[in-house]
Amino acid sequence: MGAEEFAVRLPRGGMTLRGKRTGDPEGAPVLCLHGWLDNCASFDALADRLPETDLLAIDLPGHGFSDPITSATCQYADYVAAVLELAHTLGWQRFRLIGHSLGGALASLIAGTHPGAVERLVLIDAIGPLPARPEDSVAALAGYLTEYLKGHRSPVYRTRAQAVKARVKLADILLSTAEVLVERDLREVEGGYTWRHDPRLKKSLPRGFTEEQVLAFLSAITAPSLLVRAERTALREDFYPRRFETVPGLRVVTLPGGHHLHVENPDQVAGVIRDFLGFSPGW
C-alpha cells in the first residue's frame, strides 16, 4: 500500500497534525518522529521497508504541513504532549516508537513518562534531549523573547535549488537528503520560495531539562530499546556514554552514514530495525 496523507485534530492541543500513513492498517502500530527542521518525508525510505506495520510518520508541530505549537514557546514538553494526544486520539494504547534526532529526544521522554504505552523504542542517532545548564537559562530565555517580540520572516529564495543548498548548509547534510526534506517544507510566495516551518524553530530556546533530569527519564524506560548510531555521529558530547548505560538493556548498533543515516543508508538501518521489531529479514 502506498503512502496516504493523514490529518488528526488534537482538541486539547488546539492544532492539527499531518503526515503520511503507510503499510498494513491491520499491522503493528508504529509512530515515527523526525528531527529538527525535518518532516515526515525523512522516513519515506524506512516506511517502504516496513510494509507489515501500520506506520505513521508525522510532521511534528510547526514542521511540514502540521500546525505550530499554540503556546508562545516551543518546549520539549509541548511536543511530548502533542504526540501522546495523537496516540490517545487514534486509540493507540500501545505502539512502537521510532525517533530521529529531535524526534529521538522526544521519543526518549515519551518512553520514560509513559512506559506502558511504548512497546518497543528505536532511537536513530539520538538519546534524550540536549541538557539545560542553569547558568545559561536567563540569557537563553531573554534572547528568545527578544527575538520573539521582534517577529521573524523566513528568507525568500529565487529558486528551489537555492533553498536546497541553504538546507544543506544549515545542517551539513547530503544534497540528496536535503532534496527529500525540502519537498514538504517549501511554499511558493511572491519572488520565489520560502520555508513552511514555524519561524520560531530557528530561534534559540532555553533547554528544558538538566542532565540529571534527562537521566531520570532515561532510567524510567521499560520498553526494549535500540539505538542506531551513525559512524559520523552527532552524539559526541561527554554526557552520552552515561546515557547509554542508563537506559535499561539498551542495544547499540553503529552503521555507516551521517546523522541522517536512515535516509542515506536505509537498507542497513531498516535491516536492524526489522530484526529488533521482530519481522523477517526479507521485504
UniProtKB/TrEMBL annotation:
Record's keyword terms, sorted: Hydrolase
InterPro entries assigned to the protein according to its UniProt record, in alphabetical order: AB_hydrolase_1 (IPR000073), AB_hydrolase_fold (IPR029058), AB_hydrolase_sf (IPR050266)
Classification via SUPFAM superfamilies: alpha/beta-Hydrolases
Domain AB hydrolase-1 residue range list: 29-142
Record-linked Pfam families: Abhydrolase_1
The protein's name in its UniProt record: Pimeloyl-ACP methyl ester carboxylesterase
Family membership noted in the UniProt record: Belongs to the AB hydrolase superfamily.
Recorded GO MF terms: hydrolase activity
